[in-house]
Amino acid sequence: MAIPLLEVKNLVKRYGTVNAVNGISFTISRGTCFGLLGPNGAGKTTALEVIEDIIPPTSGEILYNGAPKSPTFREDVGIQFQHTTLLNFMTVGETLLTFQKLYREVESFDYMVEICKLREILGQMNNKISGGQAQRLMLALALVNKPKLIFLDEPSTGLDPQARRYLWEIIRGIKEDGKTIVLTTHSMDEAEYLCDEIAIMDHGRIIAQGSPPQLINRYCEGGTISLPRENVVASLDDLPLPYREENGRIVIMTDKVNTGIEKLLAMKIDLSDMTVHSPDLEDVFLNLTGRKLRD
Ligand code: ATP
Q1: Is the pLDDT of residue 295 over 70?
Q2: Measured at the alpha carbon of residue 118, what is the angle toward residues 112 and 121, in degrees to the nearest 5?
Q3: Residues 70 and 113 in one domain
């Protein structure tokens, strides 16, 4: 069996009495995108920082290519931090060139510019670029030392939907070029779109792990049909399926959406303004913890 690129074994990080990371284990295969998904404070950034070698663990083991991390580990990895300050008086192009000077082995300037879609803004000052453009520049900076493994800490936080989508396509492109990616996110749609494997974290622990479809199949059943409360003129007790009331709507749970709709039609319930929801990672988290990923 191929040795995984990264193996994390029983990792613990304590801050005083806070168990920020409380015994997590997982392996990451080459060429995949692995996501740590969880709410604020779940321990994702702490886990990432320990794996990146930025802070020491309290206990646990991390193997890179099957062996404890050597001093050259840092040359093999690229990091996009949650917050990075760019120098205002430099252009985007100058920033890339400056970072290239910091490493022995570097990625080609043109590759970084092309893959991160920076060509049109190379001459712009760093303080004049948009949030999405800044994130693309940070991504390019994470590629500058030609890393095999890239860490992205909440890469699209704060971006508008269009800029997020654009960034996701770029991240996919980087993975298709053979890089291994580890990212943290509290966005389930980001995790679903980008990750081959996800570890859902809560209170420092991994509470579920698998590919997005595996997690949905394992922890969610069927879907929901939502209707305005006033559409259900019959007594709610007559509804043939379990339901809950939510913001003036009746949310009906059903194993099979088609059968559920047939039952409602048979009761002559008005289906106008009906919405149907198939389960997603948000539901996985809700079913596992009783809480929403983001309140
Ligand atoms: P977010 O999505 O908000 O970034 P997270 O999942 O990345 O959250 P962490 O930032 O890793 O979570 O924090 C995990 C826990 O550890 C939190 O309770 C946090 O307050 C605590 N923590 C993190 N860093 C420190 C520190 N340097 N000193 C003390 N406690 C810390």
Answers
A1: no
A2: 145
A3: yes
